[in-house]
Amino acid sequence: MKIQTPIYLTVALAFLTATPLAKAEWNVVEKANPLGPGSAVDVLQNGKPVARLVHGEGQIKPFLHVFGSGGELVTNPGLDKAGKGAGLFNHHRGIFIGWNKVSSELGNYDMWHRGGPGQGHYDIVKFENSAHKNGGNIVAHIKWRATKKDDSGSDVIITERRIFKVSRPGDKYTQIDVSFELKADRDVSLGGDLQHAGVHFRAHTEVAKRNKETSYLWEPSEAKGGGRVIHDKHQWARLLFPIGKRWYTAQEMNSPKNGVKELSWRDYGRFGYFLAKSLKKGDSLNLRFRFAIEETDEPANAPKQSEVQIKQSHKKCSQRYAAFLKSID
């Protein structure tokens, strides 16, 4: 017996076959910071925040927030809505760069812990932001300023272009390619130590209260260190951490051209790479990193991952690092 398909079902199936799946819409929007003082630049996917650059009045330095798939904040804001310091070591905020010893003819400045009026500070003079079909880009032009001026009337120590390229590969995790393009406006020394300088990630302040539940992986894995890992060929580091009932990993990938020698990590959710540098007037320092932030399965032996989970996570991180290297060749 021949079975006939109802005409309305045939039409519906034809429509589904012919209609492509809806693609994500990306936008980059400048606005007031809804979580505290200063201003914000949001990278939005279908109207939901994926990343947010926070800067301006009331903030000690520009930094990038990252949001989870449910809209939850994954990174540390450092301040409450009233602008008061909140949480442990609240000068660690999101994805950030800084040195606690910035020295030039205009004086010595701590641009890690401090910033703003009466301090060395970061001044974003313009943005060149854009959105495309696969993500959004924030491009900030920044002046690192002193409290003094030279004979020509300039207070600029460093001129920087900072680029964040935000995407969601396969809509499975958030990928952020970061470039820090620094040019010295005068002879300058960028110094300090691995706990107070470099390019770092800081998880939400909740993680500091659950520091017994965090864990790290890094490569090269043979390099050992209790919070300080020294090696000539640092590749990547990965933090596993909880927020509420969800679990996340944050991976920072280091370009071999950065010249990094030291990795710093802390169980409260702050980690990153340190390097010191002395620049002559006109010299450039270009640093490139990639971050991957992903919601992941709960550890099998909570709060610790099983050996199988550790191997799987290590393999995934290594594959992503290989893709990063290929992208910057």
Could you please describe the fold and organization of this structure?
- The chain has 2 helices and 22 strands.
- By secondary structure, it is mainly beta.
- It has a domain of 226 residues: Beta-galactosidase, Chain A, domain 5, CATH 2.70.98.
- The strands form 4 sheets. Strands 8, 9, 10, 11, 12, 15, 17, 18 and 22 form a 9-stranded antiparallel sheet that branches. A 5-stranded antiparallel sheet has the order 5-14-20-19-16, with no helix packed on it.
- The longest helix has 22 residues.
- The protein starts with 6 loop residues before the first helix and ends with a helix.
Question: Concise description?
Answer:
The protein is mainly beta and 329 residues long.
Low-pLDDT stretches are 7-21
C-alpha geometry: globular
**Tally of contiguous helical segments:** 2
Q: H/E element string?
A: HEEEEEEEEEEEEEEEEEEEEEEH
Fold-level CATH name of one domain: Beta-galactosidase, Chain A, domain 5
Number of strands: 22
